[in-house]
Amino acid sequence: MDKIPFTKEGLEKLRKELKNLERVERPANIRAIEEARSHGDISENAEYHAAKEKQSFIAGRIDELKSVISQSEIIDVEDGPTDRVVFGRTVLLFNLQTDEEVSYQLLGPYESDPENGRISVTSPLGQALIGKEEGDEVNAKTPGGIIEYEIVEIR
Q1: Tell me: domain 4-74, CATH 1.10.287.180, correct?
Q2: Domain ranges of the chain
Q3: What is the spatial distance between Cα 52 and Cα 47, in angstroms, rounded to a whole number?
Q4: Backbone phi and psi for residue 138, each to the nearest 5 degrees, phi listed first
Q5: Would strands 4-6 and 118-120 be described as parallel, antiparallel, or unpaired?
Q6: How far apart are CA 154 and CA 125, in angstroms?
Q7: Cβ contacts of residue 134 below 8 Å, gap of 6+?
Q8: 90-154 sits in which CATH class?
């Protein structure tokens, strides 16, 4: 079983989501199912079917979160080298084709949020960056084609 890398904050966020699903969402959903059942014939009861569908989603998400949390490994982003790209580091990149700078923090797949500058170490760009140093050129194979970057700074 492979470990899933997390920052302490990222894992805590998943634990809070799990706690909310188990203690708030699931009980509220059970009450909604009971309420919908009390209205009589459930075969044509849209509220009942929607609540049952939501119940399935909640159960699936709880199972997923429990599995991910059990496989998690907290990696202290303050530890490790600062002269090369590793998990948790923020990398300032210069796009050699568009002459634009972009900054990304490399995190685990469950903390990834590219629109907010957080990419997964398992993404094509994340994999290309791991182990590289300032000044290195990196080619990332993306759905839009190969993008060339130069590593300007590692923080």
Answers
A1: yes
A2: 4-74, 90-154
A3: 9
A4: -130, 135
A5: unpaired
A6: 15
A7: 83, 151, 152, 153, 154
A8: alpha beta
Q: What share of the chain is helix, strand, coil (3-state, %, to 5)?
A: 40, 25, 30
DSSP string for 34-75: HHHHTTS-STT-HHHHHHHHHHHHHHHHHHHHHHHHHTEEE-
Could you read off the pLDDT of 46-82 as tens digits, one per residue?
Answer: 899 999 999 999 999 999 999 999 999 999 878 777 7
Residues found in the chain: 155
pTM above 0.85, yes or no: no
Pick the closest to residue 104 from 144, 68, 138, 143 (CA basis).
138
Residues 61 and 14: beta-carbon distance below 8 Å: no
Distance of alpha carbon 151 from alpha carbon 128, whole angstroms: 11
89 contacts 155 by C-beta, under 8 angstroms: yes
Q: 51 exposed, middle or buried (CB, 10 Å; 0-12, 13-18, 19+)? A: buried
Helices (H), the chain: 8-20, 26-37, 46-70, 124-129
* Ranges of the chain whose pLDDT falls below 50: none
Non-local CB neighbours of 121 within 8 Å, separated by 6+ positions: 5, 87, 106, 107, 108, 109, 127, 130
Name residue 25's beta-bridge partners. none
